[in-house]
Design goal:
121 residues, six-stranded mixed β-sheet, alpha+beta
């Protein structure tokens, strides 16, 4: 378990403490954990949480970038909650190492998950 709950009264959290934090689905089932975060260099905004699903849903590979805005911290669970469904993960826009430089991919990904973008309205 990550240290995300080590200081539950703090409003800020270290990225070290986010790594490894459990992510829960709609039924309070753990669906994976946060492997690492992707932060926009200029603004400092967290853009994506790269999640590790470890075989969840029989997905072909285990790491998926999920818009940070698709996650909310749940103090009762001591982890992040998401409404992302199995179908959304399976049908997510294809990701490659070049995707980080492709605003079209980012737009499609945020729309796919119904998440607000990190770069503006």
């Amino acid at each position: 378990m990550a240290k995300a709950t080590a200081h539950p009264d703090h409003k800020l959290i270290s990225s070290e403490d986010v790594q490894g934090t459990e992510v829960y689905g709609a039924e309070d089932d753990s669906i994976g954990e946060i492997d690492h975060l992707l932060i926009e260099k200029v603004s400092g905004r967290v853009a994506y949480a790269v999640m590790s699903f470890g075989g969840f849903l029989g997905l072909a590979h285990s790491h998926y970038p999920v818009p940070w805005s698709a996650l909310t911290y749940d103090t009762g669970l001591g982890g992040f909650r998401t409404g992302i469904t199995e179908a959304q993960l399976r049908d997510a826009p294809a990701f490659s190492d070049d995707s980080w430089n492709d605003r079209d991919w980012e737009q499609r990904t945020h729309e796919h998950y119904g998440a607000r973008t990190y770069w503006g309205a």
